[in-house]
Task: structure prediction
Amino acid sequence: KAGVTQTPRYLIKTRGQQVTLSCSPISGHRSVSWYQQTPGQGLQFLFEYFSETQRNKGNFPGRFSGRQFSNSRSEMNVSTLELGDSALYLCASSAGQPSDGYTFGSGTRLTVV
Amino acid sequence: AQSVAQPEDQVNVAEGNPLTVKCTYSVSGNPYLFWYVQYPNRGLQFLLKYITGDNLVKGSYGFEAEFNKSQTSFHLKKPSALVSDSALYFCAVRETQTGANNLFFGTGTRLTVIP
Result:
């Protein structure tokens, strides 16, 4: 079956702009989680959506937001981009149970200039 | 609060030798533990998990990990390293008592297998 699809793969934006990243989970998976990966901070949890509801949220400013649609596809939005937002953004899907692992997408590499 | 420590940023091992990548954790209650591997410019790939039962867990690509509750460790092992095992390895924990479903990741260990 198809894996987790993230689009776009690469993105270059200017400070102050906003950006929307997309994630299509594995068919049947209702949970989508987003992580920010940087060399200095490692993998930082942004938020998790389950059945269109935000179930859990990490410690990121309000500029970072997300949503999930009825088909489980998810988007995350970052407004007023800062240089420090440059990172690999990873989406992970799961069936949503605590014993389930994640299946990750290949990520979106965001560069803010 | 949950935490995961991977004490070694870098592990070098000769091809054919056994490898160990270390992980210790701190959670309330019983943990769910996971190992992932990341190749350059890719997402993370699932290797194995410990939920309950046998402390020795076998996973993909010949990897295994041993859950040690008294030492709060979950070290990743492989009997004979391959050059293709060179990658970034992440240990992760999910706390089962708080209801939070997210995985908390360690900072990663870069494994280099020397031919």
